[in-house]
Amino acid sequence: xxxxxxxxxxxxxxxxxxxxxxxxxxxxxxxxxxxxxxxxxxxxxxxxxxxxxxxxxxxxxxxxxxxxxxxxxxxxxxxxxxxxxxxxxxxxxxxxxxxxxxxxxxxxxxxxxxxxxxxxxxxxxxxxxxxxxxx
Length: 135
What we know:
Blueprint: E1 5-9, H1 13-25, E2 29-33, H2 36-46, E3 50-53, H3 62-70, E4 80-84, H4 86-90, H5 94-99, E5 115-118, H6 123-134
């Protein structure tokens, strides 16, 4: 069986290298993209088994890319794990942000990633989330 493909979308080369190394050490094949636009193009062409997606990037944010993935029949079923330091910097609870207000009605379907992991990334937590998302 060929190794599972994981697309890493992050504008920080050091983060990409770290994530890629951890994933390759566990038998995954990694592909990377430097921003959301390139990530969206690679998601469509490569059809990865999972996407690790940074939230804040140039050209197309992680939120915008996640929305585009969910709205495209070719990519809507690919699980996504958000990898970001933004919640620590801003105090935003990402899960609440993506699910929307629990008391108000939403005009759109909630676009919710499979999971979230904060930077700096704990390798064991990353592999646990990846395995969970790929089941």
